Write a sequence for this structure.
């Protein structure tokens, strides 16, 4: 099904320069509504619903299961990682290409960051049983992730009734930002400690697609650190200190 190019490249350029870049630089987050339009947005939603129906979304973490409590642990978010080239992900691929274009326009104006690569897309579903996601920072320790980008897919979302609001606690600011996970809404925010955030308990099925854009230098450094740590552990594993290691626990 040929998608109607809802946004032209010129539209994207204007959107990036007039909306996204200034907001990221001043507030550290920004969202855009009506990115794809009804038709293409629906196509993405249908493909995500099909993934949910077919069981492609696997249970993420156990939500609310604190060790030792008898509180019934409720199933939390379900996720799947897609590159976009999978069968049945054509609309998701179209979305990812559009976001890539938008980010590439922004990058040249976001200071010296070399953002040339991104993660696969994480398709997430909160089942609507009250599960949410505790307050966290996506990239607290320089793993390379620079910009978090979330595309929401939820029609007729009523936050009063359904909850599921993303609350961002911008570092050092006296206010919080409550963002409803509305259909065809695209959100950007810095992935590091500037933007702790939580997903409040959701009482209706809540779909979102997240991609993380890497700062190539930070990513390369993180890979180097991880490789050094692996070498160190293997060295320890092979020498007789291995026995010490076992007895030390
Ligand atoms: C399912 N889910 C998440 O929803 C968020 C997150 O911050 N979501 C914000 C949102 O959906 O508005 C995450 O950051 C996250 C990180 C690792 C694994 C799963 C994760
Ligand atoms: Mn997060």
């Amino acid at each position: 099904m040929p998608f109607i190019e809802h946004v032209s490249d010129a539209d994207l350029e204007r959107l990036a320069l007039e909306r996204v870049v200034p907001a990221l630089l001043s507030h550290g987050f920004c969202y855009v509504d009506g990115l794809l339009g009804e038709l293409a947005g629906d196509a993405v939603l249908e493909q995500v619903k099909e993934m949910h129906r077919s069981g492609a979304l696997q249970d993420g973490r156990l939500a609310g299961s604190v060790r030792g409590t008898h509180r019934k642990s409720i199933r939390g978010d379900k996720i799947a990682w897609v590159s976009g080239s999978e069968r049945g992900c054509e609309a998701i691929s179209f979305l990812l290409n559009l976001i890539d274009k938008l980010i590439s326009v922004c990058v040249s104006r976001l200071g010296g960051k070399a953002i040339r690569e991104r993660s696969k897309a994480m398709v997430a579903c909160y089942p609507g049983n009250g599960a949410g996601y505790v307050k966290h920072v996506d990239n607290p320790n320089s793993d390379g992730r620079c910009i978090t980008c979330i595309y929401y897919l939820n029609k007729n979302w009523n936050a009063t009734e359904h909850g599921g609001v993303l609350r961002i606690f911008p570092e050092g600011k006296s206010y919080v930002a409550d963002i409803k996970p509305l259909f065809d809404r695209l959100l950007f925010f810095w992935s590091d400690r500037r933007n702790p955030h939580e997903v409040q308990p959701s009482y209706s099925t809540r779909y979102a697609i997240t991609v993380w854009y890497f700062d190539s230098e930070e990513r390369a450094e993180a890979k180097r650190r991880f490789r050094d740590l692996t070498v160190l552990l293997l060295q320890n594993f092979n020498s007789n200190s291995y026995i010490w290691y076992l007895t030390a626990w």
Notes: The longest helix spans residues 216-238. The pocket of QNM (ligand 1) is lined by residues 60, 77, 79, 124, 133, 138, 150, 166, 181, 197, 199, 208 (CB under 6 Å). DSSP finds six helices and 14 strands in the chain. The radius of gyration is 20 Å.
